[in-house]
Protein 1
Amino acid sequence: MSSLTRIAVFIYLRSMNDKEELQRLKRFFHDIKLPEGRLDLGFFQINDVEKYLDACFTRLERNDGNDWFAPNLKKLQDMEQYFLDQPNIIKGMP
């Protein structure tokens, strides 16, 4: 297998993992009750959580495989952890 083929396979597998992670995060945020109003996560503030999530997911889907947008995925993962750490998280309908 040539170096270029290995790189292409690696990028494809990483892209598939990112897609799966994105779908998992979408399910997570769909299944919880999102707070209304401003959310202060300590490391950044969000004025409208639902709009923020929609923008992040759209940006990541449109730029699949582009490393420039990896921090957006990381922010979603950090946000997920924030909600998991909250004792009053309310699960929605599955």
Note: The longest helix spans residues 3-30.
Protein 2
Amino acid sequence: MAFFTQSRCLPNTTTYAVLPRGPCRLLGPNACFGGYHISLALSMGVALSIADTVLFRYLLLRFHGFRKNHYLTMISLCHIPTVFLAVSFL
């Protein structure tokens, strides 16, 4: 995905421009924006998964075990925001 978008960011005081430099510029600005948005969602998913792993290990050492609903809560809190961000550009 990062190869597809290959964007260059230009921050300004009031705006933020993402200029495509890769193959997606041949498909148009909407395809580039969609690819960039999905790439951001995947990056956030990776960050949340790492944070979830650290929290899981800490809680496992601290409380010596979990119930099934604790596992499901931790997994859902990690993946629901990622899915929401990935589909919100539609």
Note: DSSP finds three helices and two strands in the chain.
Protein 3
Amino acid sequence: MGFRFRKSINIIPGVRINLSNGAPSLSVGPRGASLSFGKRGTYANLGLPGTGLSYRTRIDRTVRERQNSRTQSNPGLREALEQEVERLMTAITAITNIHEFSPSPVDGNTWASLESHYLQLHQRTFDRPVPVRPSKPEYSPLPSAPDERYGRGFLGDGSKPMRLALNDRMRTSDSGNWKWRTLSAKTHCLNNGMRNNV
């Protein structure tokens, strides 16, 4: 067994420097609840003063392990990131070397050649055939006009008998006479229509 050396120096209340055989560390916090920062990592110290009970755990390793487990939980994330980086690097390389891939303007078209080319395109005739107008459709013949014997319906020219029937209804107020005159008007209309259709 070797000898161990440990010494704590208070700088300000709540801040101490710990000297030991290894690297020095810095402790922040009151007694019983403090954080230690050193070469070996960051530790959280919890304890009850005067009882000798204490608990110490490393914080930075826990955070690193969580990050590693999160990265390992998604195995396709690294591959997707590598593809995205490769795409961006290809775009940056193309932009950087654009002068090497661009054609030389000396060997290209001049304004005069372009003007003559578009002028020829504008002045030449079209090679498309002229559209043909379609023929007009044939209309169906109009129906024949009605005469005195055909085409006037069952009642014939019923405008005059109907007016007579309406006038008879309006003039008559007695219920009995109203029924009789209505029946006579209907009979007159029927007789007139049958006479015209014969």
Note: The chain is about 45% helix and 20% strand.
Protein 4
Amino acid sequence: EADSGKQEIQKYEEAYTGTRDALMKEEEKLREMRRTKGNEENLRQLEVKEIEFRLETENIMQKLRQDYNFDPAAVVQSEGQEAGAVPQDFVPEAAEEQAMLLRERIERIGEVNLVAVDEYQRLKERYLFLKDQTEDLSGAETNLNRIVEEIEKECKSRFTQAFEKIKENFESIYQKLFEGGSARIFLTNPDNPLETGIEIEAQPPGKTLRNIMQLSDGERCLTAISLLFAIFLAKPSPFCFMDEIDAPLDETNILKFTKLLKEFSRLSQFIVITHNKRTMEAANILYGITMEEVGVSKIVSVKMGEPVPV
């Protein structure tokens, strides 16, 4: 009887254990079901949130497109993301704040100049035109500078050649007029012949070498005549006009002057204004200006010939 009681108890214990295990399993299933239900609720809430966020994001993007002509999708695509996809770290509040800042900056800039593109194109064309003109002027300036250099080089060469010829002629004619002595002309600045001055030094027979300003009037006049004929001899012209060039000369020097004049008359024609009788005697044709009536001039011409023996 005791054994049967123990068996009965053991049977109940086993039944209790099985029931308890089954209950625990059911409770676990119940808890799992509750968790699943909670997850489903959370999932539904998250889906609702996602829809709200998407709508808010779309509204912001639409506002950016309409108000600011700004396409966020293009920016996202330029950053290597799929066009139209929202970045994972996108925050609507931050985007709205950024949009407000951009709006304020645009308002500070002012109204949009609708003709700015046309004006830019016009200014660009003007700039290109002026640029071409500047390049042309620069090229012309370079060519002109080259031409000026060539002209200056040629002028220096010709001037130097002419000066050397005049220098030789001057020394020769001076010695002929003074019947001796010496004279020379030289440049004050040989390195710049086109802008240099000319100095004259002369040494009449029996005198020391002097600057032309230290000579007497007659000596200075003969020296100047020597230079004049030296230039004329270097490049003769059809005629030469002289106005009272013999005024400072005495009779002896007048004879020297007229002798030189006759010698050069073989090369050219000389027209000389003079009051000196000796110079008049050397002329081939003599023209006199008289005033028989007040305010009325009269020209009298005399052709000078060989003297007739008496």
Note: Residues 10 and 16 are 10 Å apart (CA to CA).
